[in-house]
Each structure stands twice: as C-alpha cells, then as structure tokens.
Write a structure and sequence with these properties.
Helices cover about 35% and strands about 15% of the residues. With about 350 residues, the protein is an alpha/beta fold. The model has no long low-confidence stretch (mean pLDDT about 95).
Length: about 350
C-alpha cells in the first residue's frame, strides 16, 4: 500500500493492546477499503470495514495463506506473554507462529509485511544516550521475550534476502500503555490477584530506585499511528518508537507523589525471583534483568522517514495508564477485558 490507493489490510493479534488501536485507526482511514482482524477469540466490537477470523498462530493446521489472500499488507502484532514458566509454549506461538506468518505472506504474494518487533530485541545498551536502529539486536538471552524477539529479527533477515519483492517494516516500540490496556497488563506482569486500586499515591509512599531502571514508554495510539504511516508509505527497515522523556525513579516518583528509596538490584531481583518461583508473580526475574539493560532509543528515523511524532509525553502516558489501573479499565475484547482484580 502506498500513496492514495485503497487496500485490504490483515492484522494479526487484532484484539490486543496495539491491535485494537490500529484497527480503530484503519476503520476510520479512507485509504483503507477492508480490514481483517485475526485473533484467537472473535470480539464483540464491530468497527467499520472490519471482519474477523478466529485464528490461533500456535496451531500448525491454521491456513494463514487463505487468510492473507488478496491482502495488500499484513501487520503482524500477535504475541503471547504467558506462560512464563513454559518458554516452549510461548516459543511455539511467538516464534514458530510468526515464521508461519512470514511464509504465508510470501505464499499469498502480499507486497507489504509490517512486523511488531520491540526494544526488547536490542542487546544491552547505554542508559545515558540513545542508540539508533543499527544497535545489535541479540536481545538478553536469559529472558524468553527478548530471546524470541531477537530470533525473529534473524528470521526476517533471511526472509528479506529470500523475498526482496516484499516490503518489510520492523517496528521497535518502547513499553506501550493506554487506559484500556491497564487490566490486561496488570494480569500479565503483576498477576491476576494484584488489586489495581493499589496504584494510588497515598498507598505508595516509597518507590524503589534500582540501578539501571531507566526505560522509555509510548502511548499505544501513538504506536498505531506509526504503523498506519508505514502502511501508506514506501518505508522499509526498522523504526524505533518512543515518547519523551525516559522514565526513571525520579519521574515515577513525581507522577505517583512518592519518595524514591535506593535499593540494591540484587535484593529486588531476589524478591522478584522468589515471587515468580512461587507463581505469585507472572513477570520473571529474567525479564527484570533484561529491563535494567535495555538501551534508550533514538527515534530520529521515524520522525524523518515516517513523519511521525508521538502526541503524548511519557508523563501523560503513565498518568492515563495508572488511572486505568485504578479503575479496572479495559475494552470489549478477551485480552483487554476490564477488571480491578481476579
């Protein structure tokens, strides 16, 4: 897809955090004729120009070529974060499922593939300066999420070599939040029994200040706008996506009205590992290690080639997300269902 021409866009993972934002944008886009959303469970939501298919990328029998027929672009967003105690399961869905998506794109002769990579694909990097898209993408090998994202970068290298006629775009966003994703992300990272209303300033007088805790965020709708811009242009390659400014303990303390308290990394990791081993916390200590090593990203390329700029700052993203967390916000899809606890 490029210019002013219309087209048919297939979106995998269309009911998730990014998928719901992108489907909404595409449904309102006059340059898009049809949107097909793929998800494991068909939602109740019915955006204009959108139809749905129940598709499980972990199922080898799924006929993705049929789903991609006559598509002008495939946007691959589907991803499974759980179960973190069974990396073979997430590998089947995330890596093998993604490779089936790539193969089906080639078989169906789809001219454009936009893949959701991540800051998590990057090798450990600096926290005092930003790196561009040429930074190595070998991930943090001990964390399944990073290992899978990095592996798919290599798979796409091979795919582009074998299929030079397919325009491939790799989006590498920072941590993505919006109000409607709050309940899902609480369940994924904090656990289903962690009460969202705990995220109140009066209940969080202290905030751990951990060495290396300096990351970037982005509003999910801003990420979706970047995907849409890539659909309608001729851009290729990787693009970093993040909001201003980096998030650290000082900024979080300002948002929450808490006081930062320095804690050693080893002590916090031990607590995370204990909770994860007892299955009280879904987020693994390996992901904790990775987060503390992620580089800060320079987004100049997205600004220059896609003409993209985030509309919300990191503070605005966090404030909206925390409000959603307290209220148990969600959306009318199975992944984003709203609930304060449970």
């Amino acid at each position: 897809m490029n210019g002013e021409s219309g087209g048919r866009v297939v979106v995998t993972g269309a009911t998730g955090n990014v998928g719901t934002s992108l489907v909404r944008l595409l449904a309102e886009d006059e340059r898009v004729d049809e949107v097909r959303g793929l998800a494991r469970r068909v939602p109740d939501m019915a955006p204009a120009k959108t139809d749905w298919s129940a598709v499980d990328l972990g199922d080898e029998q799924t006929d993705l070529v049929k789903e991609f027929e006559a598509a002008d672009a495939v946007v691959h967003l589907a991803w499974a974060f759980q179960p973190t105690h069974d990396p073979a399961s997430t590998w089947r869905t995330n890596v093998l499922g993604s490779i089936r998506v790539f193969e089906a794109v080639a078989a169906a002769k789809v001219p454009t593939l936009i893949h959701a990579s991540s800051v998590g694909a990057y090798s450990p990097g600096p926290k005092d300066r930003a790196v561009d898209e040429s930074w190595p993408t070998h991930g943090w090998p001990d964390a399944a999420y990073c290992r899978e994202k990095a592996y798919l970068e290599r798979a796409l290298d091979s795919f582009e070599h074998e299929h030079p006629g397919v325009r491939v775009v790799r989006m590498r966003p920072a941590f993505l939040f919006k109000r409607e994703s709050a309940s899902e992300q609480r369940r994924i990272f904090g656990g289903r029994f962690l009460p969202g209303p705990l995220a109140r300033p009066e209940l969080l007088p202290f905030l751990p200040d951990i060495p290396g805790l300096r990351v970037q965020t982005l509003h999910t709708d801003d990420a979706a706008r970047a995907y849409r811009l890539a659909l309608h242009g001729d851009a290729r390659g990787a693009f970093n996506l993040a909001a201003e400014s980096p998030v650290d303990a000082a900024l979080l303390s300002e948002v929450l009205g808490s006081r930062p308290v320095k804690l050693p990394r080893a002590a916090v990791r031990s607590a995370v590992a204990a909770a994860w081993n007892l299955r009280l916390l879904p987020a693994s200590p390996h992901l904790f290690d990775a987060v503390l090593r992620l580089p800060l990203m320079d987004c100049s390329k997205a600004r220059d080639e896609l003409r993209w700029r985030p509309e919300r700052t990191a503070v605005e993203v966090l404030e909206e997300f925390l409000e959603g967390l307290r209220q148990g916000a969600g959306a009318d899809t199975e992944p984003l269902r709203g609930r304060k606890v449970g």
